[in-house]
Predict the structure.
Amino acid sequence: MKNPNSQDNPWLIALYISGAGGLLAVYIVIGFLTGKWLAEWLDGPRYWLAIGTVLGLFIGILNIALLIKRFLGAQSE
């Protein structure tokens, strides 16, 4: 008899995917705000905004990749 696995639920998979998009947006906004704060605090150039935003994007992508790896690892068990 097959044991029901909560990872097989399509709603749970959709929740993971939509959560990943929201998580990426949060990281980008945090990176932008950090870059803005640094530009104001250090009286630096405005490209700190771009650096913070791109850094937030890369950190968000890395976090999503780790989330997917953990999710797919749970699927294979």
Observations:
- The mean pLDDT is 83.
- The radius of gyration is 18 Å.
- The longest helix spans residues 10-41.
